Task: structure prediction
Amino acid sequence: MPVEAGVRERGGFARFAFVAAFGLCTLVFAGLGIWQIERRSWKLDLIARVEVRIHGAPVAAPGPVEWTRIGATTDDYRRVELHGRYLDAPDTLTMAVTERGPGFWVHAPFRSDAGFTVLVNRGFVPENRRGPGERRATEDKDTKVVGLLRLSEPGGGFLRSNDPAAGRWYSRDMAAIAAAGRLGEVAPYFVDADAASEPGPLPQGGMTQVSFRNTHLIYALTWFCLALMSAGAAVFLVRRGSGEPSAS
Result:
């Protein structure tokens, strides 16, 4: 009958559209799964390289000639050492959340014997002990600092911008901190002092948290499962359509 044929034709077109949509979703989901596998491989390689840097022998902190070549993939978390003196300038406190609870990282400008200035993260102080009198003062003498090179964190923290005028720092933005403290040109990185350089009690050095979120395998499995489900739905529709009786 013409009406039945028209209904069957429209149903066939709708089925084809759904099969095409499920087929496209299968390709997209499979591609995302493969991308997550590649990201996981990259993350594992990064973790391995960072582990080597953390436990390697310290090298001289890079000077101005090398600053333009510093990058996260080659230098972040590298062990470095500085020789020189702390400058007679106020510390800068930046927000910190650690295993000891909330508080602040204490940053002090350090003038290297090589002639450049670096901000050194001397370590952690609790929120209720942020006053200058609560922490050990820097000494006006030749000092050696060993720690981990960390790249500047411009802009601010999550949903919170730095407020230099009010002295509120949510990220360790070296250029902004230097400008607020009138320190002149400083290195585009800071150094997290280790526990031997800043033994405490306050500030307490050596509290750098080295961790990388690695959930790529979970995401990959999720995308592959969605790809299988889409492929299964497409196969079901194709079989269902092929099983319908043809119009006589």
Summary: The helical segments are 2-55, 64-67, 72-75, 174-180, 216-242. The chain has two domains: 2-48+214-242, 78-193. The mean pLDDT is 84. The CA atoms of residues 107 and 122 lie 6 Å apart.
